[in-house]
């Protein structure tokens, strides 16, 4: 049809073309028509010497470019087919080789089954050894990481570490304490409950500065300080019942023989005061109240009572260092604990016989010479026995101060400021916690 349109003869139409009609070769560039599917070829239709110029001659260069593109595409397809064939052939060769090797191994195993089993057993043992080695290495690395991060792995089944960092007798006791305290600690984004407890024990036991423990646990100093305050508050709430005034029946059951021999079964408590040093206060009004003439420094004074068995049974709140022992004994609530017939062993500073007498109880102190050159034999013997038994309280106080070194250091004045919405200071709670923890340890009184 394209030829009819190109020739443009009036006696020809699309529906009527004589079968004998031909187009001369002179009308084609190459002397012959092109293949009918090459519609971009210059000789796809006759275009020369037609008597008109209405047929647009196809650009030869354009056709040449298209031909080259077709040839290139055809070559690329051929190359891909060759590569696929090579890969397929290689895969078949590899599979064939593997099949031959497998068949060969099976044949060898069939001929010598014992040797094959031995080889498999050796390979299995080798793999098991490697797995065991990797598991051991993993456990070791996890343990080392736990120690670096101060996690529970730091203390597992290690009584030496527990005693050094906490003052408690062993890992089992520490585990019981953790279960009693950890559920009540606040959730901190930077510290786990265990780390909060360990940080607090490091402050109490070793008196490590806050800056030091903040570096150990990789937290800011303010974060370490907040964790210390929160943990001390929880420890006080959970452990303060360990410091409890015992009932008379409990005392009678386990009263040590030296007390029974000297005082019968009436001794209820041995009392004494100890002082904790604090920094100089900027408040000139409050500062004189904390000055202790005995210590020649600023201190906070606590009245403590222990049972004849050497266990803390009473701890007062803190008083200024200048406050007398007698006043603390009368105002701290200690006298309210006494029952008629009780005997309290005290130092000479506790001259509270009149107040104790109102409770129908008795205070035993060392005898005074009262102008005499020496005591009578009876008074001297009683004084010797009383002084020996009364010394137990100083032993117990010495233990708690040596065990928790924060009580032997000079503490910041901020620790003697009452806690928010409470009538107790942080130092009051620290002293109570240290005494309660000491009660978890074996007594020094035999």
UniProtKB/TrEMBL annotation:
UniProt keyword annotation of Metal-binding present: yes
One of this protein's Pfam families, by short name? DDE_Tnp_4
* Segments of this protein annotated with the region Disordered: 89-112
Q: Which InterPro entries is this protein grouped with?
A: HARBI1_dom, Transposase_HTH_dom
Limits of the DDE Tnp4 domain: 271-439
Tree of life domain = Eukaryota
The UniProt record lists the Transposase Helix-turn-helix domain at 190-241
Enumerate the UniProt keywords alphabetically: Metal-binding
- GO molecular-function annotation terms? metal ion binding
Q: Where is the composition biased (Basic and acidic residues)?
A: 90-107
Q: Does the keyword Metal-binding apply?
A: yes
Q: Which cofactor does it need?
A: a divalent metal cation
Q: What is this protein called?
A: THAP-type domain-containing protein
């Amino acid at each position: 049809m394209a030829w009819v349109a190109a020739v443009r003869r009036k006696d020809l139409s699309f529906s009527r073309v004589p079968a004998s009609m031909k187009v001369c070769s002179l009308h084609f560039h190459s002397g012959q028509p092109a293949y009918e599917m090459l519609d971009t070829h210059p000789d796809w239709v006759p275009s020369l010497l037609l008597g008109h110029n209405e047929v647009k001659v196809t650009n030869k260069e354009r056709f040449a470019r298209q031909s080259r593109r077709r040839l290139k595409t055809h070559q690329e397809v051929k190359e891909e087919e060759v590569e696929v064939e090579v890969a397929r052939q290689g895969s078949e060769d590899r599979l064939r080789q593997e099949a031959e090797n497998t068949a060969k191994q099976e044949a060898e195993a069939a001929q010598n089954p014992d040797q094959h089993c031995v080889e498999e057993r050796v390979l299995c043992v080798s793999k098991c050894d490697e797995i065991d080695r990797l598991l051991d290495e993993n456990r070791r690395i996890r343990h080392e990481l736990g120690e670096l991060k101060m996690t529970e792995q730091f203390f597992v089944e290690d009584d030496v570490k527990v005693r050094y960092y906490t003052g408690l007798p062993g890992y089992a006791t520490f585990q019981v304490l953790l279960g009693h305290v950890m559920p009540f600690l606040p959730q901190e984004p930077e510290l786990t409950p265990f780390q909060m407890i360990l940080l607090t024990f490091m402050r109490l036991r070793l008196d490590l500065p806050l800056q030091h423990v903040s570096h150990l646990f990789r937290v800011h100093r303010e974060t370490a300080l907040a964790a210390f305050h929160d943990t001390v508050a929880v420890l006080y709430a959970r452990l303060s019942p360990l410091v409890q005034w015992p009932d008379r029946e409990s005392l009678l059951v386990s009263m040590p023989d030296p007390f029974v021999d000297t005082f019968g079964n009436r001794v209820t408590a041995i009392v004494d005061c100890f002082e904790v040093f604090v920094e100089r206060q900027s408040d000139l009004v409050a500062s004189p109240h904390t000055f202790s003439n005995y210590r020649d420094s600023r201190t906070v004074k606590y009245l403590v009572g222990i049972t004849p068995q050497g266990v803390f049974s009473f701890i007062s709140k803190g008083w200024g260092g200048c406050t007398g022992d007698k006043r603390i004994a009368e105002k701290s609530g200690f006298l309210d604990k006494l029952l008629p017939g009780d005997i309290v062993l005290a130092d000479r500073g506790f001259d509270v016989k009149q107040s104790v007498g109102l409770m129908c109880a008795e205070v035993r102190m060392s005898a005074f010479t009262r102008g005499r050159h020496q005591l009578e034999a009876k008074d001297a013997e009683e004084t010797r026995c009383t002084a020996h038994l009364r010394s137990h309280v100083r032993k117990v106080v010495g233990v708690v101060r040596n065990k928790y070194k924060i009580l032997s250091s000079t503490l910041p004045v901020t620790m003697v400021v009452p806690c928010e919405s409470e009538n107790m200071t942080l130092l009051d709670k620290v002293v109570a916690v240290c005494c309660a923890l000491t009660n978890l340890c074996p007594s020094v009184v035999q």
